[in-house]
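Worked Example 4.2. Read the sequence first, then its structure tokens.
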Amino acid sequence: MSETTGAHALIKSLEHEGVEVVFGVPGGAILPAYDPLLDSPIRHVLARHEQGAGHMAQGYAWATGRVGVTIATSGPGATNLVTPLADALMDSVPLVAVTGQVPTYAVGNDAFQEAYTTGITLPATKHNY
């Protein structure tokens, strides 16, 4: 029996929910989620900046009526999604942001690209964890 990783479960969950496209910028802490994405029917649209990826996902949701999904790495990648998240919240556009995070043992130790993402994005999201 093969081991199911969190990254694999994430991509399978997106597939199960009918997600057909995600918008993102690969980097550091989110790279493990990109491995199962390679074998998935979900199409990845590469953005040049996380904020652009967030707004692309927002535009996709607005135009199609389907949920927009954006993917970014930890720290600055995640904080670059705050504006699209806030905009989507204010406009009632369904947007899901998936971000990486530093390893659990490094949280609270000022690790490279560590940020309190849940706290930073709390005012800009309906649900946050």
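Now turn to a second chain, presented in exactly the same format:
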Amino acid sequence: MEEFVFLTEPKGEAYRQLLEYAAKTHSLALLADPEKEVTASRNDFFKEMAPHLVSRELRHSCPGTEMPYDKAAIYTYRLDKACVEKLLEFTDGLFQWLETDLPTDLAFLRPDGTAWLWSVAHERDRMVTAIEAMRDESLDEETREGFLYTLAEFDFPEALEAMLEVACDKEADPNMQTRAGAAIANLWIRQGAMDRTIFEKVGELAEEGLLRSLKNWNSDWRNELSK
């Protein structure tokens, strides 16, 4: 399974369009409530969201992250326009789902129950398995930029291929190229070094436009890439 992380936190309009994209794809929204004590703010949330509730079950982990809980109530909601608007009343960004004021760890499930986005808000961690959203032309450019992912440790070469495609596309939007360059830099940092074959490919493409999108890289890294 390919697993990617967002380059930046979806906030504001990007967050709204993320929720709308999830609703458009008939996804379910999932939230965890591991708190033992009831708070007024969480009570208000659950009351407001009751019309959209599909299920509530006690579990020791959350789909996607498998974040361990002593025991948490896992709430599943059916996403539609009304549900999206209600979620936006409570949060304006993916990392605002923080206990104790709200349930935590927003996730989106496909109709078959598998998770395609999950998050751990208190660690500012977020991951997706759906790269097709980046190419969804019904989303505005800023939001699609938010869907440019850096890959977590699992499938590094495949992610780099996707980033290189954007970074070296002379017809690509300059902002998208810059985002792709930043993604490649992030991958480099996280991996420590590239596989030699991938490293050589980056070197071959460096003079073709890649370095222009990596202008904020440390000069030593740029020198290494151009060797």
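Notes for the reader: The chain is about 40% helix and 20% strand. The first strand starts at residue 4 and ends at 6.
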